[in-house]
Amino acid sequence: MSSSATPVSSSRLHYAWVVAAVTFLVLLITAGVRATPGVLMVPLEGEFGWSRTTISGAIALNIALFGLIGPFAASVMSRWGLRRVVALALALLAAAVTLSTFMQREWHLVLVWGLLVGAGTGVTSMVLAAVVATRWFDERRGVVLGALSAANATGQLVFLPLLASLAESRGWRSATLVVAAAAAVVLVVVLFLMRDRPEDIGLRPYGQREDAATPAAPAMAPLEALRTVVRVPAFWVLAGTFFICGASTNGLIGTHLIAACHDYGIPQVRSAQLLAMMGIFDILGTTASGWLTDRYSSRHLLFAYYTLRGLSLLVLPATLDAGASGLGWFAVFYGLDWIATVPPTVRLTSEAFGRENTGVVYGWIGASHQLGASTAAFGAGAIRSAFGEYHLAFWIAGGLCVLAGLSFLTVGRQALQTAAPRPVTA
Length: 426
Description:
The protein is 76% helix and 0% strand. The chain is built from 17 helices and no strands.
């Protein structure tokens, strides 16, 4: 038996699962940080008199940076290593969230929660899950990616009810300090347990055959890759639908559902519990989506996911008008579909642009997701300020989701079946 590589059939736990568990914790904390502004919106409005449009603008900047930094983060991870880059991002998040307790002016909000937190979460974004899944796993990649994607919802599950309760009983500053402390704890875990590549510790990716070639991962060139993929129809189908995905999840529901429920007299803790319920069911839905992605057509899965999400948003205003009783069913239905789009989107990205380029290309597709979220976060706040309610925002998002689903049966059918040129790497 060769001493240079551990056999994949060894009874020992493959270290890929340790890296996946650490990545899950990182994404969970990132989700907790990103969910915090939704809890802070009403308290900040009450304490400082800042308008909902102003607060939404800072959150929109946060979400935009979260997406735009992703492609460059994938390249930096290839050059500097996962462990070092993720550790620096967590240190930035812990420091920035702590600084937010000293905010007094609107520009403080934009600087801390918009710029600094947006930059930190941009590194520990969805692209991190794609990089870890493709780098460390040859088998079970869809299931692993589904579980890592579900960490976003699990962060809501863990943090939102606690943060809402703390904000209500002890003030919003106590809530932010809990998040900062959690980021610091996970930073220590990353320093001790995270590893960059399986080859660094004498392993192959999980499930890879002993006689398979292990190519060196190239250092990706994000801007050159972008110049290449924008000429490919498959990229526009995936990026365009992911724009709608972000608008209908993080940007609209993740940012504004608590505030929308507040408009109907539903207590903040109760509405945070609804988001947490979505988190429970998203764990199931996204993990199941990963399992389905390993077995069925990604296009057909995405058609179902987007169409069902759109229908649920179209009926949400009527559900809110009826009071809190029906929101539980909305949380279950919407939660199952929250991030279920990620595994099939990553699979289609890998098929169209090659496994070696999945990280950087998916980074740009993820950037589109967050630009959609940023647009909806600001746009829904502006609609609320102009009309006094969120109904129009929900209807627009629902209609766009239905169109996104249909696109996978129409223009996407030919675009995603055509082989794309491989982006240039550095």
